[in-house]
Amino acid sequence: MTQFESSPNKPLPQTVLEIDELKTIFHTRDGEVHAVNNVSFSLATGELLGVVGESGSGKSVTMMSVLKLLPSPPAEIVSGSILFEGRDVLAMSDDELRELRGGEIGFIFQDPMTSLNPVFTVGYQLVEAVRQHLDLSKKDARKRAAELLGKVGIAEPENRLRDFPHQFSGGMRQRVMIAMALACEPKVLIADEPTTALDVTIQAQILEVVRDLRRDEGMGIIWITHDLGVVAGIADRVIVMYGGEIVEHAPVKELFKNPQHPYTKALLATMPSIDATRSERLYSIVGQPPNLSKAPTRCSFAPRCEFAFDRCLEENPPIINVAGNHQVACWLRHPQYESGNVQHPPEEITMRETF
Known about the structure:
There is one protein chain. By secondary structure, this protein is of the alpha/beta class. The chain has helices at residues 59-66, 94-100, 112-115, 122-133, 138-151, 157-160, 170-181, 200-217, 228-234, 252-257, 262-269, 351-354, and strands at residues 15-28, 31-44, 48-52, 75-84, 87-88, 105-108, 188-192, 220-225, 237-242, 245-251, 320-323, 326-328. The strands form 2 sheets. Strands 6-7-8-3-9-10-12-11 form an 8-stranded mixed β-sheet, with helices on both faces. It has a 4-stranded antiparallel β-sheet with strand order 2-1-4-5, with helices on one face.
C-alpha cells in the first residue's frame, strides 16, 4: 500500500490542487489545436503525481495551463476549473497570479539554460526570486539563497552565488532551478521533465534531491516525464496521457502490475529489460500521434491499437473506474463492451509477449 491509498488507520492527505474538465486550445493560422481535452485530476499534500506520455500528449500544456503560463493568444482555456486550496485560479487577477507562481506553486522548466539569464549571476537571480515573494532585506535574501543552494546539494554555496549560469554543469544548473522553485517554500512543485537532458548518474542525484525535499518540506509534487522508469521510483500515483487526454490513472504499483489501457501496455513494452537477449529487438509503438486539429470524437489511440474494434473508431470512451482507484478510458474495459469476434487481451500474457 502506498502512502496515498486508503487506510483504515490513516486519513487521506488534504487535497491542495484540483483540476476538473480542463480544456485548452491554440488558435493558429491553420485552425484550432485541441491540446488539452477534458482533463481532471487532483493532488494531495505531500503526494508525488507522475504524468507520463509521448511528446505532444499534452503533459506540459496541461500543467502550464494550471498556472496560466501559456501566451494568450494563441492559447485559450475554454472550459473547466482549476482550484488551488479552494481558490479559483482562472478567476485570479494578474497580481494574484504573480503571488501564486513561485510563491505557492513552484515550476521547474525542462531546460535550465534557457530559464536562467546568462548575464546575471546565479546569486542575483535567486535573491530576486526570494525578494519577489518574501519581505526580506538583500542581506537576508542572499543568506536564504545560499541556504537553498546548500539544500539542493551544491558545495560551497556562498561562493557559487557569485558564478554565472555557464559556470555550472547541466546537473548543477538544474539544481539551481530547483532551488529557485523552492525559494518561497511552495506548497506544490511542478517539474517539467527536469532530468531529460541529464546523464543517468546526474539524473539519479537530482531524483534523490527531490525525494529529500519532499520528505523534509512535505510539498505536493507533479513530475512530468516520458520515462516510466523514473516514475516507478518516485511516484505515488501515475497519470498516462495521450492525445491531450488522460487514458489511465492509477496508483504506481497498480499501474505497473496491472496496466489496463493498450497504450500504457505499449509504453511499458518499450522499456528495456535486463532479461532481454541480444537478439531481442526493442518494441516500438507503430504509427503516429493523433492530429489535434479537431476535438476527439473517437479513441485517439485506435489507429495504433491492435485491439481496436468498430466502437473505438466511432465514439470516444469515457474514463471509468475498473478497480478501486484505478481508472481507464478504453472500450475494451467498459462494462458495456460486447463483441463476438474481439477478445480482451489475455491477462496472463506479459507485456513483452503481448506486444
